[in-house]
Amino acid sequence: MKFIDEATIQVHAGKGGDGSAGFRREKFVPRGGPSGGDGGRGGSVWAVADRNINTLVDYRFARIHRAEDGDVGRGADKYGRGGEDIVLRMPVGTLVRDKADGALIADLAHDGQRALLAKGGQGGLGNLHFKSSVNRAPRQFTRGEAGESRELALELRVLADVGLLGLPNAGKSTFIRAVSSARPKVADYPFTTLNPSLGVVRIGDDRSFVVADIPGLIEGAAEGAGLGHQFLRHLSRTRLLLHLVDLAPFEDGADPARDARALANELKKYDAALYRKPRWLVFNKADLAPDAEARARRILRALRWKQPWFLISAINGGGCKQLSGQVYEFLSATRKARSRRAA
Question: Do the strands 45-50 and 114-118 form a parallel or antiparallel pair, or are they unpaired?
Answer without folding.
Answer: antiparallel
